[in-house]
Specification:
It is built from 22 helices and 18 strands. It is α/β, with parallel strands linked by helices.
């Protein structure tokens, strides 16, 4: 069999459904091998967008998303998305081409050491030097990508190797069960929880697995321990649950942080240090139980006293079966915090001012989206507002990046979400800055006949940085820019363009777009002028009164 045919067969055996990317000369054997494959090639307009789509596919399915590029500049365009998948714990494989490695006659033209370049950004990076190596390399790459903690992997496939013939056979997947936590660790955790007076549960990104979600819900229902989440843990347990007290969207000084200060034990499930710390440990302060697939990475603000390492769902189940509900537990202060937090989240939800204010924006998006709808956030100051104010009913319905926190991923993520879940509503929420970084993918979305809504929050500036600039007492400088007419811009790609011209008009526009097939782009002016007052000052002042 031709080596490129074997490579495609190996991907098929792994259950790969899509390859996102832009082929080059060095991928033509691979491209030809895909003609008769059941794997669908999704041609994009930029390699970065292709890799963002592959990473989001991995995040939503737990299976490895695959993307492909040529050598040199095509491969270097994968770098940001590789870091996005690696830090965000998303299984993703990058396949890059390369010039012939046995008898190249083009010197160093377009040659970059991509394997070494990818080493600090991936779990696994290899050049395939023989067609006979393909089955083992593909199997190992996929295994590494999906193994806890998931992440990015990379294979370089030179064009002369792709053209080889090989008799090698595919390697089947092995049956693997994740190791479970040791009994003594479970017993220590149970003892610490039973001894606590004010235990609090934290749900992080690593908890976002199907079995873990189910078991955590059972745990919360059985014991009534209040819980909060990190940004990437949103929706693991429904945020409509009566024991949910908030999201750690701000680093400090929110109502939620008063609850954290009051806790004498935090049961930290699935937290990953790549996210901004949801709380800070101090010597002699709150005790912490670390429950995760892997042991804790200790730093000056995180040094848990007990670690329960193994499959999270099984660990929670073991604790649930041994733990006895204690009469000494006191959650009254946590419920007081919840009441005040919930009330504050409602403030501004019907603010009539225009350009629209963030509180009204988030409230209207929540009203328009069905419970299982997916919002895919790019990166900007609005991410904090959505993390804090938007209630997530189900896991993976709020896709945001609180690890690399890159701009440009919102639109490609919504496109991937619509491919994975064509019967569910998908909305990209982007600042005007982040949208323009991969706006060319509107053509891809239209060509694929996707049904997505792209909500552009226009403030004609890099709003997140302006907020920080104001908070540091610096004058407004260097962060404003111009924008195209987004309605005409959308229409030039064959998408449907809309413009919001009043706060009252946003909700009806969202509902119309969500219920009309096609690619919709909404230009929505937004006013961030009160970010500093509310997020940095007002919340902190009110929280101190608790």
């Amino acid at each position: 069999m031709k080596a490129s045919d074997l490579f495609v067969k190996a991907l098929e055996a792994e259950g790969v459904k899509y390859i996102f990317g832009i082929p080059g000369e060095e991928n033509l054997d691979m491209l030809n091998s895909l003609i008769d494959s059941n794997i669908r090639l999704i041609l994009t307009r930029h390699e970065q967008a292709a890799a963002f789509m592959a990473a989001t596919y991995g995040r939503l399915t737990g299976k490895t998303g695959v993307c492909m590029s040529t050598l040199g500049p095509g491969a270097t365009n994968f770098v940001t998305a590789a870091a996005y998948a690696q830090l965000g714990g998303m299984p993703m494989m990058m396949i890059t081409g390369q010039k012939p490695i046995k008898s190249s006659k083009q010197g160093q033209f377009q040659i970059v050491d991509i394997v070494d370049m990818m080493r600090p950004l991936t779990k696994y990076t290899k050049q395939i030097v023989s067609g006979d190596n393909i089955p083992s390399r593909v199997r190992e790459a996929i295994r590494r990508a999906e193994e806890e903690r998931p992440g990015a992997v990379h294979l370089e496939f030179p064009e002369d190797i792709a053209d080889e013939n090989t008799d090698e056979q595919l390697i089947g997947q092995s049956v693997v069960r994740r190791p479970i936590a040791e009994e003594k660790a479970i017993n220590r955790a149970v003892a610490l929880i039973e001894q606590a007076k004010n235990p609090l549960l934290l749900i992080g990104a690593g908890s976002n697995r199907k079995m873990t979600c189910n078991m955590l819900r059972q745990f919360v229902d059985k014991f009534g321990i209040p819980f909060f989440s990190t940004q990437m843990g949103k929706g693991v347990v429904s945020e409509t649950h009566p024991n949910y007290i908030g999201n750690a969207s701000l680093s400090a000084n929110d109502f939620l942080h008063r609850a954290i200060e009051h806790a004498d034990l935090i049961i930290n499930v699935g937290h990953d240090v790549v996210e901004k710390p949801p709380f800070f440990m101090t010597q002699g302060g709150v005790k912490v139980i670390h429950i995760n697939f892997f042991s804790a990475e200790v730093d000056p603000v995180y040094f848990p006293q007990v670690e329960v390492v193994g499959d999270i769902a099984n660990s929670i189940w073991q604790i649930k079966e041994r733990l006895q509900k204690q009469d000494s537990w006191d959650f009254s202060y946590f419920m007081k915090v919840k009441e005040r937090m919930d009330a504050h989240l409602l403030e501004g939800a019907d603010d009539p001012r225009f350009p629209i204010y963030p509180q009204r924006l988030v409230a209207d998006v929540r009203k328009a989206m069905p419970e299982d709808g997916l919002i895919c956030l790019d990166n900007g100051v609005y991410k904090i507002w959505f993390a804090r104010n938007y209630r997530a009913y189900h896991p993976n319905t709020v896709l945001l990046d609180n690890a690399l926190a890159t701009m440009g991923a919102g639109l490609p993520s919504a496109m991937a979400a619509n491919l994975v879940y064509p019967d569910r509503k998908a909305m990209a929420i982007c600042g005007d800055g982040g949208f323009m970084m991969n706006s060319q993918e509107l053509e891809t979305a239209v060509r694929l006949k996707l049904n997505i809504v792209v909500l552009i929050l226009r403030d004609d500036a890099y709003g997140m940085i302006k907020w920080k600039q104001a908070n540091m007492g610096f004058p407004n400088f260097g962060l404003d820019y111009g924008n195209p007419d987004f309605v005409k811009y959308a229409e030039s790609y064959g998408a449907l363009g809309h413009r919001v011209d009043s706060s009252e008009g946003l909700l009806s526009c969202l509902e119309n777009c969500l219920n009309t097939p096609g690619v919709h782009v909404i230009d929505c002016p937004v006013d961030y002028s009160e970010n500093d007052r509310i997020l940095n000052n007002e919340i902190a002042k009110l929280a101190k009164q608790l």
